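Hey,
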Amino acid sequence: MVRSGAGNAVAARRFGVPAGTVSYWVHMDRARHGELPGRSTAPCPRHGGTPLAAAAYSYLLGLYLGDGHIIQYSGHRVPSLMITCTETWPGLMDECAAAMTEVFPQNSVCRVRKEGCRNVKVSSRHLWCLFPQHGPGKKHQRRIALEAWQREIVDAHPWALIRGLFHSDGCRITNWTTRMVGGVRKRYEYPRYFFANKSDDIRRICTDALTSVGVQWTTLARGSDPFNVSVARKASVALMDAHVGPKY
């Protein structure tokens, strides 16, 4: 069932065995077939001779800067990239998995179930090369800067990065206010995009990309914390709707 595309949890429920048991069986089966990530001879997506899927990478980079992290478990030979996606947005989870598959075409992508969310995961020894922003500690407590080769990709595919950033730490909401029309106070609603991140560097990467595509933005502080980037101008919201849209 798993080889045909079913998740470990689906197979576990079908046969009435613990999900951990199915995971162990799958691991042993992959070991027998030489398919474990640590034994993969897959070339580096960036240096392996095959062109990197640049648009998919730009989108994945946005997701990583928002809700991603890289971890190498004790005893594991290779690190894993995990993007945490809420189960509220299954379409976003599918896009994340598709981007991972496009960037790492020779590696397996899986979804690890957590309470209320899933970690979309891929393991590769080349993660350090593709995501040099990784480091100890929380992202907002260390410097985050794009390298020159990443900037070239982002400059060529800015909307993919913006889409990834807003799919991770952004949202599209409907704001409302009231105004007097003909002496009568009426309610007025309008759409708005927000991107919220505690890292000054990541917010700057986001706003630089927005500026490059002609989106007007402002910083909306809550108290003394300028953690929110707001897009509310009608023309800019229309651009965001055309290229990003609400989560689904």
